[in-house]
């Protein structure tokens, strides 16, 4: 297993989740335009459904995370568990930030 520094991985996790959510939502909005659907509504809906996938993409798959939890629990390496929890929180924060930006851009939450 390749060891990476904590802080760069923490930032990568945040920005990967942010990029996946914003990019996926906006590209989906372009496809909605071509298929004659309301683009802003589709972008807003995609931002909700892409959240979990943005987190998984930021974590680089789930097997490394599960392996780190196992190592932390069964081998007494609590430092790995804390790092994984912080990386997951970073990915959650990136996905939430992306969803908030999409919400601001589309203004779908404003009722008529």
Task: Give the key terms.
mainly alpha, 5 helices, 80% helix, 0% strand, elongated
Explain how this protein is built.
The chain is 80% helix and 0% strand. α1 runs parallel beside α5, α3 runs antiparallel to α5 and α4 runs antiparallel to α5. The protein is elongated and about 55 Å long. With 112 residues, the chain is mainly α. The mean pLDDT is 86.
Write the layout of secondary structure elements.
Blueprint lengths: L5 H29 L4 H11 L1 H9 L3 H12 L3 H29 L6
Helix pairs in contact: 1-2, 1-3, 1-5, 2-5, 3-5, 4-5
Helical percentage? over 70%
The coarse silhouette is: elongated
What fraction of residues sit in β-strands?
A: under 5%
| Biggest sheet layout | none
Mean pLDDT: 86
Taking the alpha carbons of the first and last residues, their distance comes to 53 Å
**Secondary structure tally, helices:** 5
Give the structural class: mainly alpha
Q: What is the alpha-carbon Rg in Å?
A: 17 Å
N-to-C SSE series?
HHHHH
Assembly level? single chain
């Amino acid at each position: 297993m390749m060891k990476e520094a904590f802080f760069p991985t923490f930032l990568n996790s945040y920005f990967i989740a942010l990029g996946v959510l914003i990019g996926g939502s906006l590209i989906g909005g372009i496809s909605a335009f071509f298929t004659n659907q309301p683009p802003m509504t589709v972008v807003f809906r995609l931002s909700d459904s892409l959240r979990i996938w943005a987190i998984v993409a930021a974590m680089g798959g789930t097997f490394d995370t599960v392996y780190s939890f196992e190592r932390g629990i069964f081998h007494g390496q609590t430092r790995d568990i804390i790092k994984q929890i912080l990386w997951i929180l970073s990915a959650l924060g990136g996905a939430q930030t992306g969803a908030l930006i999409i919400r601001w851009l589309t203004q779908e939450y404003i009722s008529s």
